[in-house]
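2024-03-11 09:14:02 DEBUG pipeline.ingest accepted 1 chain
2024-03-11 09:14:02 DEBUG pipeline.ingest length=392
2024-03-11 09:14:03 DEBUG pipeline.predict start
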Amino acid sequence: MANLQMTGILEKITGKDKDYRYMATSDLLNELNKEGFKADPDLELKLSNIVVQQLDDVAGDVSGLAVKCLAPMVKKISEPRIVEMTEKLCYKLLNGRDQHRDIASIALKTIIAEVTTPSLAQSIHASLTPELTRGITAPDKSTEIKCECLDILCDVLHKFGSLMASDHEVLLTALLTQLSSNQASIRKKTVSCIASLASSLSDDLLAKATVDVVHNLRRKSSKPDMIRTNIQMIGALSRAVGYRFGPHLGDTVPVLIDYCTSASENDEELREYSLQALESFLLRCPRDIASYCDEILHLTLEYLSYDPNFTDNMEEDTDDESHEEEEDDESANEYTDDEDVSWKVRRAAAKCLAALIVSRPEILSKLYEEACPKLIDRFKEREENVKVIWKK
């Protein structure tokens, strides 16, 4: 009786009337959510084919309901059918029309989120990972396709990374190449993807990833965007693997401190990312970073009062009042407070200092005795300078 009812629903789903398709898909979702729902092999095949077909429905509300059907289906149909569905969706993602790509990506993420059994996880990994890797590295694929592939691979690695040890090296090599992509969106998603992979990497592969990133940072010819990406990558690796990153601090901490102090005046992001990575080291590797704490303390105190715009204003020297007003009018047109992002550097420095205190409580006495008076004097000096400017 149940199968007859399902047959009627499936017939309406393929009808021409949009309202009938919507109601039939809603009925299908209700049936799938019933605890006692079971399907024989023939019905499973029909179900999987029709739901995948409905994902491409021209009516967005119908395709949206079809996506919702996937979650209960993963729990109610056999593994071979699920794997078959993921392969079809992956093909749509890589080779289908642009308008079908987003829904295929959402559908794949929905299926991955519902997988709980190791055997199904292995099967999905075996079918999806090689295709996604090819989609990421293929030169003929668009930025949008590569970003979608990276998103889905990130989900796969986060959930099944430990089951994929035999493929870790191939995946890591493929992903590291994307850190030098000309597209910022690809680099950003690659950082997240490698971080998801890092938690299950062996020590040797973690070392390989770190050496590769540090090598990129030591190349002075690298573009600023690439440098910022690689610094973010170091911080992401540290957050992903925790204390395991300790042996690599000797190679990374001096490089980050150097970039933080030598960055150009307008490169606030580079300083912010460097301080964020140092904060991660302090929280994740408190023992191994002990020898660098004094240097990091001086660095954070220096950037707590960082304000290059204030310095620029102090260096201006005007000859007469009318000339000063004219310059003020011009600068008002060229610069606004909305453009000032130096506060991000000060925030990162404050968080880094807080992490230093948490990881090394004994530094508090040094902070009170030496650093705090200097910091207070610096802020007092700045306050006096602001009053002088205000009077002028």
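2024-03-11 09:14:41 DEBUG pipeline.report Residues 311-322 have pLDDT under 50 and may be disordered.
2024-03-11 09:14:41 DEBUG pipeline.predict end
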